[in-house]
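protien #1 (seq + structre)
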Amino acid sequence: MKSTRYILFLFLLAISSTLVAQPRLRHPELYIGAHAGVMASSITFKPTVKGIDLLQSPLSINGGLVVRYAAHKVCALQLELNYMQRGWREVLPATATSPAVDYRRQLDYIQLPLLMHLAFGNKFRGFLNLGPQIGYCFRDTEYGTKNPLYTHHYLPIQQPFDWGLAGGLGMYYRSNNIGTFQLEARFNYSLGSVFNNRITDYFTSANPMNLSINFAYLWEIRIK
C-alpha cells in the first residue's frame, strides 16, 4: 500500500511539473465527443488460475463520452465517462478426472478516467494519455462450463468498486471545419482486487486488465 501511494504521489507531482513548465495558449481549447472500440480483457490471479490468458480472450466492446480541456500548448486534461465489458476467459482441455473447460466471465463496468493528455504536432498529432481511473461493476454474468476441481474464482464478485491506471498511445487529425478524428491503443490495469484479499482469503490479488483499440470523434467548443 505504501509503494502504491508513493507511485501515485510521483505521478501527481509529474503532472503538476508538466503543467507549470508548458507555455499557455492564448485561447484555451475545449473538446467534447465520444469514443468506442473493441477490447481484450483478462485478470491476474495470485495464486494463478490455469487456462486464463489475455490473448485467448474474446473481444468485447467499450465506449463513452470524452471532454478535453487544454490551456497549455502540449498538455491537456481529459475526462471520460465509459462503459466497459471486462472479465476473463478460462480454457482447459479434458483430462481423465475432469471434462473440458470453456468458461467466460463478463463484468460490466461504468468507468471514470482522469487523464493527462500530451500531444505533439499540428493537424496530424501524436499523443500520450496517462492517468488514474475509478469504476464500478454493475453486472456480473457467467457463460460456459466450469472446472469442477477448482471453484474459488467462480464466486460472485466481492469488490465491485475498481481503481487503477490507464495509459494510451495514438494519433489524430484535427480539422477546423469537421472536427477531430482520433485512433488510440490503450491499456488499463486495476490496482484493486475483484475478490477479497484479506489474510484469511484464498486470493492475495485478482486484478482486471484490458487492452483496447478505440476510435473517437471530438468537436471543439470555442472559448472566447
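ok now protien #2
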Amino acid sequence: MTGVMNNFCRGGLRASGIVVGFLPTAISFGAIAIQAGVPNGGAIAMSVWVFAGASQFAAIEAIRQNLPWLSIVLTVLIINLRHIPMSLAACRLVYSRFPRWQRWLLAHGLVDETFALELSEELRPFPYYLGMHIACWASWVAGTWIGCLVGMQIPDRWLQFALPSLFLYLLINVIQGVQGRAIWTVLAAGIALTLATSRLGSTGVLVAILGVAVLATVLLEQPDTAGKVKE
C-alpha cells in the first residue's frame, strides 16, 4: 500500500507544472462561462465530465451566440475527435499492460498535456498515471469553480500567458533528454526566436515556442532505458 501511495503522489507531483498552467486557464473558462449566462453548476459539471479545454471554450462561445444545442454537441464532438488517435496511441504504447477497468479510469484524464508528458518518459505503474491524471483533472475543476466565483473581477491581461506557460512546461520536459551542446543550441534558438518575434505579441510567443519545439524534437535522443517499467 505504501508503494501504491508513493507512486500516486509522485505522479501528482510530476504533473505539478501542468496543474500550475491549468489553474489560470480554468479560471478564465469559469469567468467566460458565467458571462455567457451559464450557471455555476453547469460550468463546473462541464469541467467534471468533459474535461477538454478547447471544446469547452468552443461550447461556451456557441452558447453565447445562441446556437442550437445540436450544433454545440457536434462542435464539441468534432473538436474532440483528436482523442481517438491519441487514445489508441496511449493504449498501445503505455496502457496496454493494464486491466480494462484501469484503462477506463485513465481514459477520462487523458488530455493533450498528460499524453505528451507520459510519452516523454519511461513506463510507470498504474498509480503513477492515476495520480497524474487526478491532479490535472482536479486542478481544472477547482480552477473552473474559482473562475465562477471571482473570475469576472480578474483583468484579462492577467490570464493571457496561461496557454504559453503550458507549452513552455511541456517543452522543458522534452529537452530534458537532450544532452551537451544540443541543450545550448535549443536554448540559444529559443532566446533568438523570442527576441525576433517579440513585436508580434502572443503570436510571436507561439511561433517561438513551436520553432524551439521542432528543434528540440529533432535533437532529442531517446534513452536506452525507454520501455522499462520503473517502479
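The longest helix spans residues 126-150.
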